[in-house]
Amino acid sequence: MKKILVFISSLFFANANAQTEFDLEKVLKIERRDMIVMKIDTYLNSKSEYGDNIEKLNPSQSVAFPKNRTV
C-alpha cells in the first residue's frame, strides 16, 4: 500500500515540477520530514529522467545517484 501511495504521489509531484520551478526553501519549510525527502527525491528523479540522464544534475544534486549504485 505504501509503495502505491508513493508512486501516485511521485506522479503528481512530477507533473507539478514540470510546470513550475523547484523551490527548495518552500520545501524545507514543510514540517513532515518524510514529505521533504519525497519532494526532493521526486524532483531529482524527474530532472534526471529517473537516473537515466544523471548528467542533467549539477554536482550537488548528483550525490543522490552514486556512480556504483546497484539495484
Keywords:
mainly alpha; 71 residues; 3 helices
What does the radius of gyration come to? 12 Å
Low-confidence stretches: none
What proportion strand?
under 5%
What class, by secondary structure content? mainly alpha
Helix content: 40-55%
* Helix-strand pattern: HHH
Number of strands: 0
Average pLDDT score = 75
Alpha carbon gap, first and last residue: 21 Å
Helix count equals 3
Tell me, briefly, the overall form.
globular
Instruction: Characterize the biggest β-sheet.
Output: none
Signal peptide: 1-18
Keywords: Signal
Could you please describe the fold and organization of this structure?
The protein is mainly alpha-helical and 71 residues long. The protein has a domain at 22-64. The chain is 54% helix and 0% strand. It has 3 helices and no strands. It has helices at 2-19, 24-28, 33-47. Helix 1 crosses helix 3 (33-47). The longest helix has 18 residues, at 2-19. It is globular, with a radius of gyration of 12 Å. It starts with a helix and ends in a 24-residue tail after the last helix. The model has no long low-confidence stretch (mean pLDDT 75). Keywords: Signal. Residues 1-18 form the signal peptide.
What is the strand and helix layout of this fold?
Elements (H helix, E strand, L loop, with lengths): L1 H18 L4 H5 L4 H15 L24
Helix pairs in contact: 1-3
Short description:
This protein is mostly helical and 71 residues long. The radius of gyration is 12 Å and the shape is globular.
